[in-house]
Structure formats: structure tokens, C-alpha cells
């Protein structure tokens, strides 16, 4: 256990000094394995893990879902989604921010990434909110927070990786994310309502829309609905596996982008390259994480930790609460993928040993990762937003997300205390 | 005390983990009076890589399925042939004896120490809803196979072999991506495919069986005292084949009982259908015998295997 | 500037040559784009073939495996020279200039070591696989060439990083 603890400290030291997360985990995993087991095996493991982690058909789900999201982004659907949400909600106090949150939820249904959701929605929602004199903090906060829904509402790259790491049914995980995702949208809207009730100047009502206009905008988002229905319906009804759903989804998004026009060969080329680069970044991270978790494994950490926890005889819910506190604290510093890959190999065996449902825990992990995306000092979605709209300072955005973090804590409490909220839909699958 | 790290990719609750690896670990501890302990840990790599993980010393020991690295284990396809035995026990005992007499010198396990090998029970033909009465009923059904003997058999029978990694076999069947599967009865039950399977066609002697084993890192093995090696040998080899076979036979029985309870309709291939299946699959024996490089007398080995199966019954 | 113009501006940066790789980068980008498109088409053709024509693509998952190897490692040199490996930029956040220089040095050094180790051991993996002429279970495609490919791409990534460093200094 001491060895593993030292390993963790070295990883953190390397990461904070600037080592790319993948290489930090990989090198420490390699070094630790070398010290514990031997250098020849450690070297061989490096080659084997790099090879077999990449040569995986089930992991093709990652690049293909990322491709689907990127193609949809290029098809201009984010604009259509925002217009539609705006038509229904824009005339309320804080309505544009609410519309932004809802549009983020809609975009999340076809994109597997939180950063992509934030970046895309920022481009369409920020100009509108500025036009109506919204406070920068509320405008940016609603997008940074709304974007986190990208990894909870299916499809989700984080849920895919969780499923792969823990051998949990990815289809069930996807279906399980739907209700907590909708809950997230509603609670974020409540956060907007509370904020604007206290500071009405932060978000004045926009122009009301007629029902004709509303129905018109609904017609423009059929592509999102169709694609979501195709992918999730196919998984839910068992027409194809999640891996295949990703390919079908990408194909559907491709056709849809062609239909909407503007997908020049040049743009297609750019989308493909962008997707490949993101995928490789994730895979290198995954390889590093597998190396690190092999070291943790031979160092005996998960077993000893489990034994220790069993010995304390604390109630499972108290242990779960402790794990979640650790997650929220780690989440302040770590980037989402790294956090998932570093922690799941350690916590999952414990959680399973305590009798918690693996699908439920997957959703809980995603919700704490969502929180990590917007908590200071390292909040990836906040940085994404700052990169997209450079004139809004990082500090302002962090201030703006505070009410949404409160909403996230409420949601986390609901999901932990009422597992049925998460597990109801997957229980209908079979 | 020597600790042997056993990298186990089979789920911890699966009977291979509990009744084979777990029991063997207990037996080793007892036989060596606690001097050697098998410590079962979460997998350090994917299933096909375990032969290399053990050879390179990443893991000290591991469970292997020969069909995952078919280019290294040509001889194991002999005991996987169709129609050899109605159970796992007789085939596994005969397999170990055949290994000792014919295969041991062929060098297929160079670089590792073979602890034991065996075959699972006979594989049968399971479909979602199609009842099989003639060979024609099989043709063009999409049948999930892993590879190796199962693939050859699926092709010989005129089905459309549909490849899916073993980790996804449950997914593709339960979701109807494939029309059926060739599996031992146990696997249909334990992979929880049962609810999707309406019809089971049992083929006497089995359509194929899959060869498996446990290997140990060579250096680790050599580091043990001759006394401990002897003690471990005593609970491995034939004893391990019997241990594993007992588990497979029990699981096949449980699986069949549970599948019937769940509404799967079992029938046995006989008469014309069985003759047709036999005729289609007879090529496999000839192919296996002909494929040898002359180092091992495959014909004699197969005859001996069949003889020992009879003797074990 | 309209939104469409901005998109095209991104395209040019994304599609052109890269420091340390030069025009090799463009070739790699074309390569990974084709592979990714092929992966998408393969899945679609497989599923449609299975349902409509009762004819799945034989061994589609294995083809996907090989495609993944080509895609991920084909893009590795690009991700490396574009500095797109995820890192935690706490040093930069905390102490601007000096911290950034330290962070850069650590990043480059650890990346070089890790990539060099990968290149070496993937080559060894290739030798190991070719010793038994290991091939994929279903289609019987040889595995060793994939390991050699991955090794060469890791090596190219390390080399390109080194070149881009020297370039910047010089
Ligand atoms: Na999503
Ligand atoms: Na954070």
C-alpha cells in the first residue's frame, strides 16, 4: 500500500510539474512495475499494453462518437437548437440562459464530449445573451455548466471508458444517463431562476415568440431528434451494439451534414483530422492509465484498501460519501479523463464489494466529473469558454458557475440517495 | 514463502475463477504446506495476451485459451474436433494423457511451464427461435463464432459465421444481432444468453470443444524447490484436468436445467440430420491430420485420444 | 468576419504542415482522415449488410481493430508536435513565465522518454509476434506489421518533437 501511495505522489508531482498526464501515469506505472516485478517484464508490458489497448474493436466507439459530434457541430445544429429553446423560453426572466442550458442538453444528445458542447454552444449563445445585456458571469456560467451535460446525456465518451474499464454494459450506462441528464437540465434552469430572481439585471427577458415561430424552430431540430432516436433507439431495442451505434451515428451525422450543405471536402477533411487527433490524445491517456493501474494492481492497493474498508465496518453510504468527497477534491485539480482513469481502478472494486450497482456508480462518477469540469482552479469547461470568448476573464466565469455547482451538489445528493432515478430506465431494457 | 501472481481475466464469480483457479490455488497451498501461494489478481492484459504476459514474466501465471493465439497451438485443435465425447471429463483426461505421450516434445509451450490443460464440454447449436430439423434449416443463419474450430464447423454447416470477440458474444446474441451461437450449454447460461435462446439442438459428441490451460512463467517455476515443484505437479496435470472437467460437466448440467426452466426447447440431433451433420464435418479430422509437419504422428495421437476417451468412460 | 470564414481559418491551421514534421504532417493527416472515414463506412456497411442482405462484412471487428491501430498511431506524431497531449497547467496558472518554462522543459523531456520507450518496446513486440507468425483469430491477418507500424510512428513522434525543439532554439 505504501508503494502505491508513493506512486500516486510521484504521479501528482510529475503532473503538476507539467508532464503530460498520459506520460506521467505511464512512466510511473512502468517504473513502479519495474521496481516491484522486474525491468524486463516492465518493458515487455509497455509494448504489450500499447499494442493491445489500441488494437481494440470495441474502443472504436470513441473516435466514431467523437466524429458524430464534430460532424453535427459543422452542420450548424447548435444554432437551430438554441433558436428552438429560445423560442420557448426566451421571454422569461433569465430565459436566454435557460434556453442555453436546454440547448446544451439537446446538443449533448448527439455529442459525447463536454468540451465540444461548451465550445459549440458558446459560439451561438454568447452573442445573443450579450445582445440582451446579460451579465457575462451568467452567460458564461450557463454555457460552461450546461456543457458538462455532454458526458452524462448519451452518447458519452466518459461512460464508454467507464464501461470498458469496469466491464459494465455500455448500452445500459447510456440509457441510465438519460434521466439524470434531464434532471441536470431542470436543476440548472432552477439555478438560473434563482440567480436572476436575486439579480434581475443579470438576465432580462428576451422577445416573446409566437406559436408559429416556435413550431417553425421545432422543424429545424428534427435532425438532432432523428439522430438521437437512431442511436439510442438502436441500442435500446437491441438493433445494434453501442460500438456499431457509434458508426451508424457518425454515418447518420455525415449524411445529415451533407443534407444541410456546407460540408465541403476541405471541411470534411478538417473534421476527420480533428477527430483523429482527439481520439489519439484519449488513447495515449488510456495506455498510460492501464500501465499505471497494472502497477497499482501488483502493488496490491485495491485489495488492501478493500480489506481495510471492510474492517472498519462503516456503513456503505458513509464510505460512498467519503469516496465522493475525494472525487470532488481531486476534481478541483484533475482533468476529467485523467480523473476517471486514475480513480476508477481503485474505487470500483471497493464500490462493487460494498454491493453498489456498477451502472449507478458509473453515472455518479460522471456527475462528479461534471462538477470537476467547472470547479477552480482547473476547470476544463471554463478554460474552453475562455478560449472561445477571450474577453470574459476566467475569474468571471468561475464566479458565474457557482450557482450551477450548487445545483450539481443537489443533483448528486438526489442520485446517491435515490438510486432508482438512475436505474429505472436500464431496468426496463431487458 | 513464494507468492505466484496469477493474472486472471475471467470474472471473479465465473466458475473458472472459483472452481478451477481458486481450487487449484488452495490445492497448491496445501500440497506445499503453505510455502507456495497463488495470489489471484485482476488481469494485467487482455485474454489473448496472457500467454505472452506469462512468458515475459509480467504475470507469474495465467489461464489461457489456446484458440486465442491459434498460430502457436496447432496440436490443440485435435482434441477440439467434433464428435469426440459427450462430456468434458473423458475428453480432458484423454487430452492430458495424449499431451504427455505425443505433444509434450513438440515445443508448443517453450518459454512457459504448462501446469495443465483440458477441453470444455461439447458445444451444441443454439438459435433464437429457429427450430433445426434439417441441414437446410441451418443454412444462412448468422452464427456467432470466436474463431478456430468453431469457425470451420460453422462454415462446413453452411451457416454465415459471424465473428464477435468473446466479450461481445452476449451482446450480439441477446440483442439479436446474430441468429444463434455454437457454445457449450454452460456458456449459453453463464453468459446470460438464455433468455434470447428459444431452441437448442444437442449434437451427440459435440460440434467442437475449446482447449484451455494454465501456464506458469518459466523462471518463476525454476525458482521453486524441487520438492515444491513435485508437490505442485501432484495437484496439476491430470488432477487439474479432472478439476476443470468436473466444473464444466457440472455447469453444463446446471445450464441445461436452467435453460429448460427459462423456456428453451431442447432436442437432440438424430437420424438423417445427425448423419448429414457428420458427413459435413468429417473433413475436419482429415484436415487436422494432414496439416501436421511430421514431428508428431497426428493420426496415432488422434487414435490414442479416442481410445483414452473410451477408457475414461 | 462571418462564422463560415472563421471555420475556414481553423481548417487551414488544422490541415497544413506542422513544426518538426513539415509536409510529412499533411501526408499523415490525409492518411488518418482516410482511415477514419473507412472505419465509419465499414461499420455502416457491416450493419446494413447484416440486416438487409444477410451478409455481414466477414471479420468486421478484426478489420476495425487494424483500422484503430493505424488511426491512433498514425495521428500520434501529429498530436505530439501539436502539444495536444493533455497536461495540467497548474504551473502556468500559478507562476506565469518561469513556471511555464519549467513546465515546457518537463513536458518535452518526459514526452521524449515515454515515446522512445514505446518505440523500442513496440518494435520488440513486433519481433515477439513475428516469432510465431501470430495472426488475427478470424481473418488470419498478420499482427507483427501492426506492431512495427506503431513502433515507427512512436519513433517519428519522438524525432519530430526533438526536431521542433532544435528548430525553435536555433
Ligand atoms: Na452526450
Ligand atoms: Na476542477
* Strand elements of chain B, count: 11
Q: Largest chain-chain contact?
A: A-C, 66 and 74 residues
Q: What is the residue-averaged pLDDT of chain C? A: 85
Give the terminus-to-terminus CA distance of chain B: 40 Å
H/E topology pattern of chain B = EHEHEHEEHEHEHEHEEHHHEHH
Percent helix range of chain C:
over 70%
What is the count of DSSP helices of chain B, taking H or I runs of 4+ residues?
12
Main beta sheet of chain B, described? 6 strands, mixed
SS-derived structural category of chain C:
mainly alpha
Largest sheet entry of chain C: none
What is the structural class of chain B?
A: alpha/beta
% residues in beta strands of chain C:
under 5%
* Termini gap of chain C: 36 Å
Stretches of chain B where pLDDT is under 50 for at least 5 consecutive residues are none
- Return the string of H and E elements of chain C: HHHHHHH
Write up this protein.
The complex is a heterotrimer of chains A (430), B (313) and C (170). Chain A is 79% helix and 0% strand. Chain A has 22 helices and no strands. Chain A has helices at residues 2-17, 21-36, 39-54, 61-74, 77-89, 95-108, 114-131, 136-147, 157-166, 170-176, 178-198, 211-220, 222-236, 242-260, 265-298, 301-312, 316-333, 336-353, 358-372, 380-388, 394-417, 419-428. The longest helix of chain A is centred in the middle third of the chain and has 34 residues, at 265-298. In chain A, 62% of the residues are buried. The longest helix of chain B has 24 residues, at 238-261. Chain B is 44% helix and 19% strand. The mean pLDDT of chain B is 91. In chain B, α1 packs across α9, α3 runs antiparallel to α10 (238-261) and α3 runs antiparallel to α12. Chain B contains twelve helices and eleven strands. Chain C is mainly α and 170 residues long. Chain C is globular and about 65 Å long. Chains in contact: A-B, A-C, B-C. Chains A and C meet through α1, α2, α3, α4 and α14 of A and α1, α2, α3, α4 and α5 of C. Bound molecules: sodium ion (2 copies).
Briefly, what is this?
The complex is a heterotrimer of chains A (430), B (313) and C (170). By secondary structure, chain A is mainly α. Chain A has 22 helices and no strands.
